[in-house]
Sequence to fold (145 residues):
Amino acid sequence: MGISLSSTDKIFDFSISEYFATPPAANPLRTAHLTTTLSHRPQQVGTEIQRALSQILMEEMPFERFGLVTITEVMVTPGLESARIYVSSLKDNHDVVENLNQRAGKLSSELRKKIQLRKMPQLIFLYDTTAEKEERLNKLFGENK
Fold:
């Protein structure tokens, strides 16, 4: 014996006909579960890319030439099309970023071996300016004391 609902029966605060009458994008009730699922996935993928890429860089980047290379943040687009990877180094950061962008294809294929994804995002390496901004702010606040 099952429960049957007519289109005028109320469930929670809306009727079944109201629920299906509006397109999913215009109805927050139909998209609430999608937005939480979709917004969390790029963050998970970014964390995995950061972990795996850190291992790859430790194994493959010549320490003598670039020094310690740190991945500070990975931001993946919602559709997993691209990943912006922010890096910093104790040596010339611009040289490190240029080298990493030239090797992005090889690094992407190495990532495929460590991370199982249907579609690997395009890797875009960027210089992280957070430390420089912090240093400038500290100098400004230090001078104003």
